[in-house]
């Protein structure tokens, strides 16, 4: 914005000011609003109320990015050199190669951006504002500071508001602050400081946004009630706007400043030099992008340097006399060392992967994220809506003295017909079948313990505990449900048109209303039976309870007298419990005592430790009929405060309701699969620490028994954001391990966690759906947003989950790892052929014809044909290989080495040398074994009788090299296992054909490629004029023999690696405890663990380093 939205005299945040002070600052009136004639000037001053978040990337930016890819730059240089020496055919072929690579990358990334347009959410389209004393609905973008905005249930807050009127007003701020529970709004400026307990806040730094209860924030939702507020910030000045700005903000690296006054006279030169280096690094792809992209950029320039070196070698051999023939030979060496199809193969492999991901509800916005997924070591996840459903459900209900009702097999917070409610039958203490504690029957005075006869005769092991029966209606339960249903503003109904259940209201009340509907005692049905509301005392955050007064109908099933009204109350347990004089109903009712209070509080603690928010439900018969107007506005407070206090006294406690935000069913096994794959899951949430800890236990992020892992580790597993933020970077780095759960997170806390992980060498993914997740989504190596999340979050992320499920993240990582493994395979396939070609051409410098020029053992167009067509399609096939069974049981890839591991580099040299040696031997056998070394004259340019030996030898080399490259694709289906036994679990004695045919694309690519050699070699004119070879006969036997020799050599090297354990792959070594293991074992009947537990030390090591020790 062009202007700051505060005045010079008083820069305090509006939440610290009184309503009158805010009115004066923004020159508005809470009674009449802004004058219309001032609105235009304010719009010119502050701009429109819109978030400046990144939209679709322009097409020309995408094209520029593809055109200046590192490999493409090398190909462009080779193309220019070809045209410069007049080799139009090779130059034209390189133009086609460049166009193909750029087109594939451009259309895929452009298509991904188009798909994202459909996912970008829109802000609230309109706002109800007061101007010139009249309310009018205007576009959201036209709201200006000083506007008076009226809010009602269901509205999206259009801008940041200072609330001055609140009638039962609560807002869902989970998308902004991460707080799962709706926030009750107040109007006073008596906000207490978070840092100095018991004192009023005096600065912004003392209070987190979630605790500024007299503020309503842009993009949040009004859950219930109504209210009004003064607009104090719009657009990018709102809290959500600040987060959006942080997401897109670019920070300059240290040392790039050119300020000589601050850093000295030499700083401008140093700063400029570093900026130039940064620009060149970015332009050349050496400093930006994923590890694979940077590695390929380095590879491109290494190969480019090698090509120049080879050209120098060619020139030196020819004593730096460079006629066109020598230049063409040098270009051939350069073309031979560059894998022209690598960019196209890599891009198409990623395109196929994105289609697979889309079927798994994962939309990839940036192709680079796919490769990055394979290296993820840590996932930092939001809780609400990601690990959990983001909805409330009553899980347990406790009725005094005897029973706990449990909702089972229901994860749908809106559907009262899903699942069942069970309750254990109360034991009969007088019955003979009652359980007895036989050990208590032993005589303490006897020398010999007498064990009752029944005990030894009991069968061992004890029979399984019978399933709890479904709950039956009782008078106690009916009263509990009656109070929960009527003291409630939510609605639950079945929508016939949509064939589903629809709810409105605050999530906690919806959960209670759904629970009452399970017993056909919903509020609507009760009111249809004659229950009549006569008063309402709305929920008040200061007393944390709500009450209603009802008149009962005649002959009601609860047996309540119609002569008296009934008060129903619900609220925080501690607040309601202090008002209760009795506990229970009917004959079991007892007077409240300290022991009973402790019993209730113990039960509350038990529910809370299970991640539940606990509410107390109570009632009391009112003496006589409550006198009030039954048609009064239910949002108006009935009676004065003293009347309410009298009404809510001498209550009878009916029970407790435990309400929780249920984890997604698939979350726990997904977390355990991450643990098996060497990936740690961290939960960063805005929830209360106890709730966060309980949910983390339930989904398996932390163990049920923290003490089992040692005091030091247990203490650091769960931290409050205030404690984490208080630590310096050095203190955070000194922790034994970073916390797995951080509660009460602010956006800055999440980004600090990301940076702390990065300092430990981690490669992290951040998942989330709220606005508050956007900064960490953009800063993480892989940002993963939810499809139902905010526009800001999706714009900051590289990947969007359309189904919002955590297990889709695991599917994405599995696909990323599969793709990474396959990239290694086809990179090896392409580069080892380049090594073989270079060896062949360098050795070919020794073959001199009658003119003294070196003779090509293989022509430039033969090289391009092999590199672009013969090897490309098998490489595509290798990219489609299915994931191995061990793909999620290996640690993440080493991001420092990336694709080019030691094994890949050594294999490339071994197989390339073997390939070059075989083809060179073939050329020598044909020319020197049959034709006595006759190399002819000018055989690099045209065909003549003197060139027959060279042309026949070239044809044999071309055919052989083609077959070797095709056969190597089969060999590289597994980098370690024999081609003849790819599946270790196969029971077949000779599974070769079955294993090779499994990947049909690869199989037919190899078969068709092998057959294509015959027409290429034998078609007249084409063979002489284009490929510079001729038809062959007996040479085919040499080709076949050398192919068999190559296969034997590859198999021998693989056997050597296995026998000597060279480059053995490491596996994840589980520690004493693995994330998700307990929940997977309990919920799914068996553990998903793949090996015995070793030590917690190895598990901890994954937090400090990406290296995982191999199993012994």
From TrEMBL:
Keyword Translocase (UniProt): yes
Cofactor (UniProt): Mg(2+)
Record keywords: ATP-binding, Cell membrane, Ion transport, Magnesium, Membrane, Metal-binding, Nucleotide-binding, Potassium, Potassium transport, Sodium, Sodium transport, Translocase, Transmembrane, Transmembrane helix, Transport
GO biological process, one term: potassium ion transport
Enzyme Commission no: 7.2.2.3
Family, as annotated: Belongs to the cation transport ATPase (P-type) (TC 3.A.3) family. Type IID subfamily.
Name of this chain's protein: P-type Na(+) transporter
